[in-house]
Amino acid sequence: MSAGPDPAGDLLDRVLLTRVVEPGDEAGGRWVREFGVEEVARRLREGAPPLPGVSGRRWAGLLARAGQADPRRDLAVAREAGVRFVRPGGAEWPGQLDDLGDARPLGLWVRGRPSLRMWALKSVAVVGARACTEYGAHMAATLAADLAGRGWVVVSGGAYGVDGAAHRGALGAGGATVAVLACGVDRPYPRGHTELINRIAEQGLVVGELAPGEHPTPSRFILRNRVIAALTRGTVVVEAAHRSGSLVTARAAQRLGRHTIGVPGPATSGLSAGVHELLRGDAVLVTDAADVIEMVGDIGDLAPDRRGPVLPRDLLEPRARHVLAALPARRAATAAEIARGAQTSEDDAIARLYELRALGYVERHDDGWKLTRQAVISVRDGRRRS
After folding, report:
1. What is the CATH number of the domain that holds 339?
2. Who contacts 93 (Cβ-Cβ below 8 Å, separation ≥6)?
3. pLDDT tens-place string over residues 63-110
4. Which residues pair with 179 in a beta bridge?
5. In contact, 363 and 357? CB cutoff 8 Å
6. Same-domain check for residues 47 and 128
7. Sequence-separated (6 or more) residues with CB below 8 Å from residue 218
8. 51 and 172 both lie in a single domain
């Protein structure tokens, strides 16, 4: 969306609307799309008749808010706190937020030095339960540290539990992290995370839709989650009960066509029940940062092959492995018996047996063939892995 012919006016109008219209209000977004920011702001300032799709009572409430709003004061308070206002069409606006349609933020208040648009290009959300277990905190911190160490920006909500662990993991790795708050970015919430959020603002970015000084409410937490989902390439849920707010983020990511990713937990843990529900649907199971990057990264960002140590028998030619596997573990067998087990001819089995003898896997025993001690151990290990 273009900033319009009067960028200064558009800025003040949008700042006004962040005081008046609640985050994610699709009616307000539709008004902006159909009438333009300037016209919507004018009607609110002048007490004009209601815009379409709103009751008289609600419109009166919006007019009361508009009467108390002072966008110039908000911008001055923001500047004093080191906060800037980023709006659609501006150089720092992350275009992927436009996928939210009429629920797109009217603008974002941003605290921190880096470019939000550039950081969002290679970002992944790590979210989960506030009352997480030690396992959940460990997984969130480890994932975030590894993602940050590989050049990814970790986005979360600044809350207790998994969110805080993810931010700390990224910061501890010297990496990039973004906290998306459900309040004014000049008022860290929760208060117990004031030091953490201030540190994020110094090393990363703190972002929010609400004007300076605004407090969080339950609905604002829920609506904040759509920004986390839209801003990032994918959402990783570490721990979540059936009614966890982090599931809202994951489902928003699914609706937006982003990757939805889950870290499994114990089958008996209620705090992993919501994650397991996601995994029974379209979410993808991951266990480490390499798995996550394979999902959200560019072509060629593949996780390593999940294999155990290479055993000597793995280096054998396939038909020789089949013959080796057909030998009994504790007795000798004839070539004919081994051939039947390997589903090959007796002549081919004998040829392979002589190869295996040269490699120390088998030995002649009267009229039959028997595994050596080395081969017994190798075959046993191979069967454990299969």
Report:
1. 1.10.10.10
2. 86, 87, 116, 117
3. 999 999 999 999 999 999 999 999 999 999 999 999 999 999 999 999
4. 156, 206
5. yes
6. no
7. none
8. no
